[in-house]
Every structure is written in C-alpha cells, then in structure tokens.
Specification:
The chain has three domains: about 150 residues, Immunoglobulins (Immunoglobulin-like); about 190 residues, Coagulation Factor XIII, Chain A, domain 1 (Distorted Sandwich); about 35 residues. By secondary structure, it is an alpha+beta fold. It has three helices and 23 strands. Helices cover about 15% and strands about 45% of the residues.
Length: about 400
C-alpha cells in the first residue's frame, strides 16, 4: 500500500518545533516501504547532507511509531519507554553508523538493516529513524534540528481485517467545540465518523454520506470530492450528490481509532459567466427548494404564484462504506441517521390577488343576477303595465 503524502506533510507539521525552514540538514528519502517475510532481512540507505558551513556530528535513534488519539496525532515511543522492550519493533532495525560527522556541504549514505524475526505478526509495522546534531556544550537547553525517516514493513501472512464503526453522529459547532444534536436551523451541519481499526494492517476506508429528504429524493450537489492520481496527488475537485469522507484516502493505523469530521455548509452549483468561463456559487436549503419550485414556475397557471413559509423537514443521512476484503471481494456497509432542519420554504399555491379578483367577480355576478336583474325586471314590468293601461284609456 502507498503511504499518503499528506500524512508525511502532517508529520512535518507535527515536528515543526524541531525543523526550521532554512534547514542546515537535509535527508532523503523520507520514507522506506518494504515487504519482508518473517526470518528474512533487508538493507537500505539514507542520504544525509550537511548544508551548513560548519562540521556537524549527528546522533541516531530509533522509535516505534503508533497512532495516539482519534485525530491520529502521531506518537513516537522511545526504546526506553517501551513497557515490553523485547517486543519493540526497533529491535528489528540496526544502523550501521549510529554517529557520523559531516564536513560542510558533505553528503553521506547511512546504511541500516532490517531483520524480521520468525515470530513477527503478519501485517504492517511502523517505526522511525531520527538523526539530530549534538547539543552544544555551552548550552544547557537547546532546540536542535531533528530529521527522521519513516520505515514501513509489511510482513506477509494471514492478514486479518477487523474494524468497527464506533460512532456516526451529527453535530453543531458552538464556538470552538461541537455539540451532538439532531435539530438544526441553519448551516453548517457537521457529521462525525469514528472508525476503529482492530487488527494488523492499515486501512484506507472511503465513505460517502447521502442526504435523503421526506420524498425519498437524494439532495443534489451538496459537496465536492477530491480527485487524486494513482500516486495520491491532488488533481481537481468535482461536485457530487453526497458528502465524501476520507476521499484523500488517509490511513487508519492498526489497532487505532481515527475520527473524520465533515461540515455540510451549502449546495454547490455552477454558472456560466459572460466571458465563457464557469464559476461556482452556493445556496442554502431555502434556495435549494426554491430552485426546485422554480423548475415548475414555467408551467404556473394564471391562478398560481410562489409563496414562502417556515417548515421543519426530516432528512436521512445515509452513511455508506465500500472496501475490498483480503480475497478482493467487495464489501459494503451502511448506516442511517435522521435529523430535522427548520428553514423558509418556497412553494407554489394560489395567487391571492387573482383569487380576490375572482371572488369579487363572482360576488358581483351573483349580486347582479339574483338582486339587480330581478329588480330591474320588476321595474320594466311595472313600466310596461302602466304603458298598457294608458293606451287602453286613450282608446276608449
């Protein structure tokens, strides 16, 4: 398996206290990754360059590399801090020259050998080799440069994949912390996934969270997904109808937990600019459903119009995971979580102005035909009757 370049960057940030931008030392490669059978060995080299104008003596050390907490903050365990020193992975590794002196501008290769014991557990194992200059004799406390090389060893054998979804919850950010909740009135809405790797290989779980409304329609263009090359290099992003989790394929180390948090902030949509270019804009739930209503506005009847009301809708967050088992068979897993969102909804209903006009028109028609018209008819009958009576008098 490839070790994500972003993890190496994360480690670099973790040790920024020890590494300065204008480093007087450089080392390559930053990572060695081997597959070695039990009871076999492997030899590798590291190149170290003294970029300073002074001679420098470097001291080496070895430390096991483990995951510390569910954010996967790295932790290196020194040999003397091991509870069971005989089980330390650093016992597998021997450095040819533990201490070296480099002249100004000199580059030296340091060899190290890896001997995998017969009892080695199948799966991936991790540790780091550190190189640092000696502390000046005149300084009681000094911050010195510390360079490292990550060493990853895969021991073939009966690899066991065992994991758990420890938590899938929805949260709302309040200042600097998150609160679990299921009722929301605005964005962002945060999704927390806690993944536990119980066994002996590192995993790259890739999840997706779909949002389904009360009509069982999947919401569209709710997030963007990173597209990477086969070497895990970032290429571009695309709009998707789900919230991707770990789309950059970060590792979850053996026997450790890792927390993934994703914020759903808005809906994405692209627009065509006047110069022919495309740009991305955003909208909230109100605008999203208003857009859906707008699709029907072209077919509005003369008595219809668009209205707005405050509504609470229940949505379903569907978390899905797919991965390959050791026999390459595809495994799938899903879990659902319901939540409610209150927002202003635009909808198509009766045009009240037209309705008022129709009511007035109907009232006037009824009033005319049932009141005015009968009255006028009676008046005309009376007038006709009088006229007939007058003519009869004149004819006598």
């Amino acid at each position: 398996m490839r070790f994500s370049a972003k993890i190496l960057l994360f480690l670099s940030v973790f040790f920024i206290y020890f590494n300065i931008s204008n480093a007087s030392l450089s080392i390559s490669p930053l990572k060695h990754e081997f597959t070695i059978n039990a009871w076999n060995s492997k030899t590798a080299t590291v190149k170290i360059t003294n970029n300073s104008t002074d001679s420098m003596t470097l001291y080496s050390s070895k430390e096991d590399f483990v995951a510390w907490d569910d954010t996967w903050t790295p932790k290196f365990v020194k040999e003397e801090d091991q509870k069971n020193p005989e089980l330390s992975l650093t016992n597998w590794l021997k450095i040819e020259n533990e201490n070296i002196t480099l002249a100004p501008g000199e580059t030296r290769e340091v060899k190290f050998s890896i001997n995998v014991p017969v009892w080695a557990e199948p799966g991936w194992h991790y540790w780091a080799v550190f190189f640092s200059p000696g502390t000046p004799s005149w300084a009681q406390v000094a911050v010195v440069q510390r360079l490292w090389v990550l060493v990853l060893i895969n021991v073939p054998g009966d690899v066991k994949i065992d994991w758990n979804l420890e938590q899938f919850s929805l949260q709302k950010k309040s200042w600097t912390w998150y609160i679990d909740m299921t009722n929301f009135d605005d964005f962002p809405i945060s999704f927390k996934v806690l993944f536990k790797n119980n066994w002996n290989i590192h995993l790259k779980p890739k999840w997706k969270i779909e949002i389904i409304d009360e009509n069982w329609e999947t919401l569209k263009n709710i997030w963007k997904e990173s597209i990477t090359s086969t070497a895990w290099a970032y290429i571009w992003e695309k709009m998707v109808d789900y919230i991707p989790v770990n789309d950059v394929l970060w590792n979850v180390l053996p026997k450790s937990e890792r927390r993934f948090e994703n914020d759903w902030e808005w809906f994405w949509y692209s627009v065509l600019n006047e110069d022919g270019t495309k740009s991305v804009k955003f909208k909230n739930l109100t605008d999203y459903y208003a857009s859906k209503a707008a699709e029907n506005q072209a077919y509005l009847q003369f008595w219809q119009s668009v209205h707005e009301r405050k509504v609470t809708k229940t949505f379903t967050a569907k978390l899905s995971l797919d991965y390959e088992w050791k026999d390459k068979a595809k495994k799938e897993f899903s879990q659902e979580n319901k939540f409610k969102v209150t927002f202003q909804e635009k909808y198509i209903w009766i045009n009240y102005y037209i309705l008022t006009f129709i009511i007035i028109l109907l009232w006037w028609s009824l009033y005319y035909f049932f009141i005015l018209w009968p009255q006028r008819r009676l008046v005309r009958e009376e007038e006709l009757k009088k006229k007939i009576m007058e003519e009869m008098k004149n004819n006598k």
